[in-house]
Amino acid sequence: MRGVLTRLVSAALVVWAAATCAFLVLQLIPGDPVYAVVGSDALVSEEQHERIRAEYGLDQPLVVQYLNYVARLATFRFGDSYQLQQPVATVLADQLWPTVQLALAATVLAPLLAVGVTVATSGRRNWPRRLSAAVELVVVSTPSFWLGIMLLTIFSFRLGWLPVSETGGVASLVLPTITLALPIAAVLTQVMREGLLAALDQPFAVTARARGVPETAVRYRHALRHSALPALTMAGWFTGTLLGGAVIVENVFARPGIGRITLQAVGDRDLPVVQGVVALSAVVFVAVSVLVDVLYAVVDPRLRRKTGVQAI
Amino acid sequence: MRHVGVVTAAAFLLLLVVAALFPRLLAAGDPTATDPLATFLPPDSAHLFGTDQLGRDVFTRVVHGARHSLAIGAAATVGGLLIAVVWGLLAALSGRFGDAVLMRVADALLALPGLLLALLVVLITGKGVVGATLAVAVGIAPGFARVVRAQALVVRRSGYVEAAIGLGVPRPLVVLRHVLPNTFGPLLVLATVTLGVSISTGAALSYLGLGAQPPTPEWGAMLTESQGFLHLAWWAALFPGLMLVLTVIAVTVAGRHAQNRSEGRYAS
Predict the structure, then answer these.
(1) Inter-chain CB proximity A149 and B223 less than 8 Å
(2) 3-class secondary structure per residue, B105-162
(3) pTM of the predicted protein model
(4) For A93-137, how does the pLDDT look when each residue is reduced to its tens digit (9 = 90+)?
(5) A22 and B120 in contact by Cβ < 8 A?
């Protein structure tokens, strides 16, 4: 119980710190935010200027603005978008589903690919591992925007198998998912392979072999689980890559979503939306790291007593 | 077998450096010269990589683009290192409270996706090469800062630092003469490994329209331009990206080689 409470408090602290950093960073932006509301070349009278400042709370002292910001953060209300004249929460909620779809699809595909490749190349022979390592290096080094453009060129323009842009159907999710998942899968495979080889040297592997367990079973039933542990520690990186990747992938494939709205907000200096996105991604990051702590206990029984999580 | 890879990577990097410093040695033409009569020509002997929508020679643009793409990545890595050295050393040497504050800030920034952090920086600096470079630098700095701090803490407890303090060497001089140089080794190795990521992120920002702007022949910006014409000219998208991939692979291979070689020396 105590452990859970500590986790929640430290989770809230991380979100607060990230949001505060974002607040401070946004104070450094040169120029009058009023022009971000009305457009940079609009003519604004003195009264209109004052009204807009009052409307968005920009006339308050910085400390009051910050306290308001924290209060809005706690209730997840960020005020209205400068550009879209809608509450930020509404804007983000509207764009959330396409991004969640994409992220979930990639979250399923990437580990599947990684486990598949790890198993397929875990045999005694060396050359499949070497080949896979070379492929991983190439995939990891490939920027996702180029990967997406090439997939579009081949499968949509040349072969005509898949739609060029968002149609709402499952077919239009295929290429974006591959683009997002492939680089992640390559990194996961690298980590899992190392974990698998390390696990095979552990005493439990020797014991299992001595009991007469066949080598394949030692690998898949005992060692593979262990290779998942180091991969799990990368969950924070994984989430960040998904969110950052969404910005790129949604732009390559002209998909709606949080990534697209983020880039647009940065281009338009739509600060409430930017603050909302920062808070959202910090919340997601923290939620994932709590989830991973629970998953640890599921994967590794030795950790169950320490974290206080019961076997599920 | 290992050596073949390293040698190939080194040779490719050398070629890249030549392309960045003296692009005219490899491609004499003008990377921004347009030719309305020669648009969308597929690769042949006259245009090795074909031509784009304005009739510009893609090969010339790719060669001349090496300068921009490498410069953003290299400058961002150096900038990120500088920020991290100040940040990490301050944390390691400023007592428990300062250390806690500086490292929690690093944690908070690490909780944001690197690309989002870079986008926040671009908000302040505005679009352009300088802004994008700074954005990539700030994006990699928090991670580096933790490495600097960890290394500085190790060095601070070492015998030679204690001896220097015991001999009455002033604190700032101890930091400059002893702590800093001994922190730098592992950091340099980390920097070589990160260089590839920096080049790639810089190109990504340019691709998103936040870094180098067309008609600059930067690889990321070239890809943005090519995307409107994928059905007509795949070559305008293939070659800039291919160069980017090969560059990142070569840098990574070289970086890993440096890491392996130094592992014995900087084992911690």
Answers:
(1) yes
(2) HHHHHHCCCHHHHHHHHHHHHCCCHHHHHHHHHHHHHHHHHHHHHHHHHHHHCCHHHH
(3) 0.85
(4) 888 999 999 999 999 999 899 988 888 887 767 888 888 888 988
(5) yes
